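Honest question from a wet-lab person: if I give you the sequences of every part of a complex, can you actually get the arrangement of the whole thing, not just the pieces? Trying it with mine:
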Amino acid sequence: SQQGEEDPQALSIQEGENATMNCSYKTSINNLQWYRQNSGRGLVHLILIRSNEREKHSGRLRVTLDTSKKSSSLLITASRAADTASYFCATVDDFGNEKLTFGTGTRLTIIP
Amino acid sequence: EAQVTQNPRYLITVTGKKLTVTCSQNMNHEYMSWYRQDPGLGLRQIYYSMNVEVTDKGDVPEGYKVSRKEKRNFPLILESPSPNQTSLYFCASSLSPDSKKLFFGSGTQLSVL
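Yes, you can. This is the full assembly:
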């Protein structure tokens, strides 16, 4: 079953612009993670934010988490052509089994 | 280099012919997992293992088997593949079963004819 739902499903922006992707989830979580996947390749972990954190930065990435709205956003600043990829959020639930569940992803295209 | 290695990268087979997809990690990770990725459905967990000799079903375990005899290896076995198992498969591992920060293999594209 899907826990995370990313929005939008696809996004195209000009190089240099900022890209924002959103993730909504349904249940109580331990942490939320964002992954990047280049076409047909394995996913790469980008950033993890715990349920007691509200914002986290890593290089050009900024992640926010709003547990009251059960939502997260990933902001990529000053986008580059190499950022073209699919981005997935994944949640680890808080029910004791620590199950990690992925959303269906946002396909980001950076136009040079 | 720290990595998760899957083999083969591509596999075409016929219905009913048993196959194994191997997965090995060199990071001494306790947690390992298999996912399948299908268009529009995202990644779905097939099986996972919290440690040696401990395996559990994920969301879509039917038609698959796994084993965890050693910490580094976690093979995925399809005893009698069917066309609906045509998919892109990923093995992943994590140092901590708690955080689940996953390291992924490069994937195996399986086609069952």
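Two things worth pointing out. Residues 22 and 32 of chain A are 12 Å apart (CA to CA). Chain A has a mean pLDDT of 91.
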